[in-house]
């Protein structure tokens, strides 16, 4: 049994890469290079003010130029799954090039105490890849991280589609974020699952699993149908989660997409308040803040 409860914070850093195969006209004017850079500045500032560390899982291509990407993906396009994904990317990119390539973000993480992890090279869900394609995807990640001088050992799977775990060690990956601790009833539509789960104020913390980090819950995104949930319920849920971790010496894991804080001012405020609450609990020695690479 652990002596003190733990809290983890992780980020799916993907810009527009996460929406390659989805309609995205609604975010084209918001997920600009400038807005993305500023929201990372905001996140790092809030974490610093509350003495918090986090795990940032970056899409590899996001940290390089389009020229570098174009050269690297020539080989990837030989695989069926990658070819479809990359061709869809170029259709979107040619229409609006903002929000995909931000190598300047690495300036913000120079001498950072945060953990940098991978979120895949081009954000293609791993369950769409053959083992050979998954190996190629991870080889690009490994090469790029090495070129950037980043020592990494964790992965946050794109869209939480966990697959090909047995090949991770070949690329120096020791752990991955597990499936989210969300309600998932197969015969109920995804939106209904999400609404029911959001209303559950008795969400519990989790225990550590071998080779995986507890999946945790996403910091609520007050956007679209999710705006229907009263903020009082959301705050109560997170208060209960953190208290459960503290009282039962378990792990509370909160994760989010940085760009959600661009598209929802209410979520931006929620993130700020959550970090302040966690910081206070740490001062009172109720919780300790850890990153993925400190768990296993």
The CATH topology label is: TIM Barrel
Any idea what the shape is?
Answer: globular
Kindly report the average pLDDT value: 92
**Termini distance?**
15 Å
In terms of DSSP E residues, the strand content is: 5-15%
What's the story with the biggest beta sheet? 6 strands, parallel
Give the tally of β-strands. Answer: 9
Overall number of domains = 1
* Share of helical residues: 25-40%
CATH architecture: Alpha-Beta Barrel
What's the gyration radius in Å?
19 Å
What letter string, H or E per element, gives the SSE order? Answer: EHEHHEHEEHEEHEHHE
Topology:
Blueprint: E1 5-13, H1 33-49, E2 55-58, H2 66-76, H3 80-95, E3 115-118, H4 131-148, E4 154-155, E5 175-177, H5 190-198, E6 212-213, E7 217-218, H6 231-248, E8 251-256, H7 260-263, H8 265-283, E9 287-289
Parallel strand pairs: 1-2, 1-8, 1-9, 2-3, 4-5, 5-6, 7-8
Explain how this protein is built.
By secondary structure, this protein is an alpha/beta fold. It has a single domain (5-294), classed as TIM Barrel. Helices cover 38% and strands 12% of the residues. The chain is built from eight helices and nine strands. The chain has helices at residues 33-49, 66-76, 80-95, 131-148, 190-198, 231-248, 260-263, 265-283, and strands at residues 5-13, 55-58, 115-118, 154-155, 175-177, 212-213, 217-218, 251-256, 287-289. Strands 1, 2, 3, 7, 8 and 9 form a six-stranded parallel β-sheet that branches. A three-stranded parallel β-sheet has the order 4-5-6, with no helix packed on it. Helix 1 (33-49) links the parallel strand 1 (5-13) and strand 2. Helix 6 (231-248) packs parallel to helix 8. The chain is globular, with a radius of gyration of 19 Å. The two termini are 15 Å apart.
């Amino acid at each position: 049994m652990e002596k003190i409860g733990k809290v983890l914070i992780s980020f799916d850093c993907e810009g527009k890469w996460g929406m390659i195969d989805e309609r995205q006209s609604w975010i084209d004017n918001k997920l600009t290079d400038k807005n993305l850079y500023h929201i990372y500045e905001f996140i790092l500032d809030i974490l610093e003010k509350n003495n918090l560390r986090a795990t940032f899982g970056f899409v590899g291509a996001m940290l390089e130029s389009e020229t570098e990407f174009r050269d690297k993906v020539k080989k990837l396009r030989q695989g069926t799954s990658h070819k479809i994904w990359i061709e869809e990317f170029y259709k979107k990119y040619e229409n609006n090039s903002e929000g995909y390539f931000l190598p300047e973000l690495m300036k913000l993480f120079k001498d950072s105490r945060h953990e940098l992890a991978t979120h895949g090279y081009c954000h293609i869900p791993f369950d769409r890849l053959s083992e050979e394609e998954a190996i190629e995807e991870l080889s690009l990640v490994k090469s790029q991280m090495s070129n950037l001088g980043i020592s990494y050992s964790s992965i946050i799977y794109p869209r939480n589609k966990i697959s090909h775990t047995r090949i991770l060690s070949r690329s120096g990956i020791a752990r991955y974020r597990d499936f989210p601790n969300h309600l998932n009833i197969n015969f109920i539509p995804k939106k209904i699952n999400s609404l029911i789960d959001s209303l559950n104020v008795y969400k519990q913390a989790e225990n550590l699993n071998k080779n995986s980090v507890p999946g945790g819950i996403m910091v609520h995104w007050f956007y679209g149908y999710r705006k229907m949930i009263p903020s009082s319920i959301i705050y109560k849920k997170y208060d209960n989660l953190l208290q459960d971790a503290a009282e039962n010496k378990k792990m509370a894991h909160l994760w989010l997409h940085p760009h959600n804080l661009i598209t929802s001012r209410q979520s931006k405020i929620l993130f700020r308040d959550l970090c302040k609450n966690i910081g206070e609990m740490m001062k009172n020695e109720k919780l300790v803040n850890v990153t993925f690479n400190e768990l296993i």
